[in-house]
Amino acid sequence: MNAHTQDLRNVVLLGHSDSGKTTLIETMLYEGGAIKRRGTVESRNMVGDFTDIEHEKKKTIFSHQMFVNWRNNKINMIDTPGFDDFVGEVIASLKVADTALIVLNAASGVEVGTELVWEYVEQYRTPAIFVINQMDHPKADFETTLSQAKERFGPKVIPIQYPLNSGDKFNQIIDALRMVMYEFPAEGGKPEKISIPESEMEKANAMHNALVEIAAENEEGLMEKYFEEGNLSEEELAKGLTIALAHQQFFPVFAASGLKDMGSGRIMGFIDDIAPSPLDRPKRKMQDGTELACDATEKTTIFIYKTTSEPQVGQLFYFKVLSGTLKPGDELVNAENGETERISQLFIAEGKERISVPQLEAGDLGVTVKLKSAHTNNTLNTKGTDRKARLIEFPESRVRKAVFAESTSETEKLFAALNKIREEDPTLKVEIDHDTHEAVLGGQGQLHLELVQQRLEKEFGVKMQMKNPKISYRETITGKADADYRHKKQSGGAGQFGEIYLKIENYYEGMEEPSGMNIRQKTIEELPWGGTLAFYWCIVGGAIDSRYIGAIKKGIMSQMKNGPLTGSPCQNIRVCVYDGKMHSVDSNDISFQLAAAGAFREAFQQAKPELLEPVYHLEILCPDEATGEVMGDLQTRRAIISGINSEGSYQKIMAEVPLAELDDYGSTLRSICGGKAKFTMKFSDYQLVPANIRQELVKKHAIEKAEA
Prior knowledge:
The chain is of the alpha+beta class and 708 residues long. It folds into five domains: 5-280, 3-Layer(aba) Sandwich (Rossmann fold); 294-382, Beta Barrel (Elongation Factor Tu (Ef-tu), domain 3); 399-467, Elongation Factor G (Translational Gtpase), domain 3 (Alpha-Beta Plaits, 2-Layer Sandwich); 475-607, Ribosomal Protein S5, domain 2 (2-Layer Sandwich); 612-693, 2-Layer Sandwich (Alpha-Beta Plaits), CATH 3.30.70.240. It is 28% helix and 31% strand. A seven-stranded mixed β-sheet has the order 2-3-1-4-5-11-6, sandwiched between helices. A six-stranded antiparallel β-sheet has the order 18-17-23-14-15-22. A hairpin with an 8-residue loop joins strand 9 and strand 10.
């Protein structure tokens, strides 16, 4: 269970939903003797997918850490969800893995879920192995799937194996690296090694020679030997391929049936022999630009990549030992907050089971409990060591819902529970929209938020309601206008008096100074809600005393916080106060606040007022055949298509789309493309609302204001 750094292999399984990752891991655990019998999804007894929600959905929703001892090495494996909605689990797992095992469904080929994870594999520069799984499926097509993989992921995708047969009769795999054919018994398990049929020798030899060339290119001296002798020894071949894999010079492809237990042992053998250990990977770049070697003799540093909670245990912290050797009782300092944490217990995970261990060396994955103030993305160091790992960058939300407790008495309970779930799932965002005063929950998709809703009810006993959130509009002007306003109030004794003349116009950076104005003072303020207020004080001759500047600005700001059209914040406006009157007795701050507010309100209505709406940049990856329908749907959403590119058999569509038109877009896209599409969205800017929609929104606001 304990292993030295050089004997570790950290593998993360990636792939589209239903590619068979969880079943393949179960078979690998069985083959390696970690479990006595293989569980099934239907029986709800697998090492992975052990949560109640996963049993109910019959899908992997959370990442799960497991391990198996294979020959001389310990192989740590992390199973990950295939649904795009749970991509946060994938990204976090890739952060601590040294090799990605990308599982393809032989019947479906390269699907969009695989396209998504490949982006992160490239980002982290993770060595990758492909497994074309489910070769026993009636519609399994190894060659088509391989061709799609080469097309999408490039010429470095190189087969090591290919099946001699597929479908119900699948039981033979030709291995071009070892130049042998594996023939499996009907029930699967350990195969018989037999000679490659003569009819397949030409193909197998060509594949073998391609592998030898890859190995020779990546190890000094091997190329010369290859040219002289025409071949390499098994040891030399393994050494060259290890270097090539570690440097992403090639991505080997295997054939397997996880369900029938055919091919998994050979995959583990390859991981054991060829896949890089943590020592073979480049030094880790830290947040400050320095590099950290994975060295067990160094001072200890660990990185927390995932947190979960259990009712009887509390929080569980999943981590990777980046350097040093970690033991129970060690005290580490959190680089994020300076808190000292004691590692009271040390475990390795086998699904939901935790096995106590006396130590973990650099490169290993572990679990601990009862840390006081640690979170996902925290780095913990030996005292006196100042290191901070680069943070996991989680994606922006793609769906937003306004949320509230079914019963108002449970509001506090709801948000306490949401914060606990957010601690486990950093892709979940909970925030109060300061414009609409709604609590908004952001996630990766409708399924993601529905799962949160389900967990709240089952685990915390609180019911959450969701609805489409109000849109945070902005108001501005496109013209210019002058206005004057007198505020006068007499009620016996001292009254109120303030009179203001001002000019407003649309403001933009670099615009010319106002003509005909005696500018005495100016301030350019970046507004809390975005945009700018440019305030010019142009009073000469003491028409209004300068001590009232603050009150006048306050009055203007009160109107800008709640604009005249829809009550939305105003932005990008220049106000020039150029004249007015005051009274020696009746003028005061409140008088000029009210006068400024009135003048601004009147001027705003005359200065061609406009409503702005938030617009998001969308990038959509969809199958080629669905492009027309996807673009047609975008046009109904007032989208502006900014570009379209081909990416293999997929099309990448880029568009600017108003947020108001994106309600439940993920569900629509999934329906159009049969689940074979993905999208990302990011705030772009505020743009003018079309006149007809603006009129409707203004009218609606007026009605709501009258009813209030």
